[in-house]
Amino acid sequence: MGAERGRSSSTRSPPWRAGPPALAPAERNLIRLTFLDDAYRALYAHWPRAARECVAVLRMEAGRHTKDQALAALIGELSLRDPDFRAWWADHRVRGPRQLAKTYLHPVAGSITLDVQQFSVDTQPDQQLVAYTASPDSPSQEALRFLLRWAARPDQANGSPVTQDNHRRK
Questions:
Q1: What is the pLDDT along the chain (170 residues), one digit of tens a residue?
Q2: Which of 81, 109, 128, 137 is most exposed by smallest CB count within 10 Å?
Q3: Inter-axis angle of helices 83-90 and 47-64, to 10 degrees?
Q4: How far apart are CA 62 and CA 72, in angstroms?
Q5: Which of 111, 132, 129 lies closest to 120 in space, CA to CA?
């Protein structure tokens, strides 16, 4: 998944995300989704930790790109619309991207823990490649495999209630 300043995603919804198959370009911002999309927020097992990490990285980006109007608009929108963002922004914590693990609570596949690594793109300094991986032979890896199969099912596209337990290994 590609990411630019403020964590705009160049992808549509990944298979592990339950919900609509595509997001409008203005909504493809991971930090915006983390704070303003209730369904996306509910995917985090430890939302406050993930959200604080987003704020710290966003603050670093804001310091590096003081004239970026889109970034300033995102910060303004989040400050107005989310009290947690507003409080954590006032903390002035700054952190660059780092390797960490995030646990998601997927409504179909259950708990999924992924390692998150962020890489700089030498030819595009304002972009990063963000990779989400599951540990080999882990329940999370099995859940991701299930979700890839599930996302490809015709009944999933029609909104049929599918659960991991009744479709795993079919």
A1: 334 445 444 444 455 455 444 677 777 788 898 999 988 888 888 899 889 988 988 888 888 889 999 899 999 999 999 999 999 999 877 766 555 788 888 888 889 998 888 787 888 877 778 888 999 999 999 999 998 888 887 765 555 444 444 433 33
A2: 137
A3: 60
A4: 8
A5: 129
d(CA 99, CA 138): 19
How many Å apart are CA 59 and CA 92, to the nearest integer?
7
Six-digit token pair at 160? Answer: 């049929």
| 74-83: long-range contacts, CB 8 A cutoff, minimum separation 24 | 74/6, 74/29, 74/31, 74/32, 77/32, 77/36, 78/31, 78/32, 78/35, 78/36, 81/35, 81/36, 82/35, 82/36
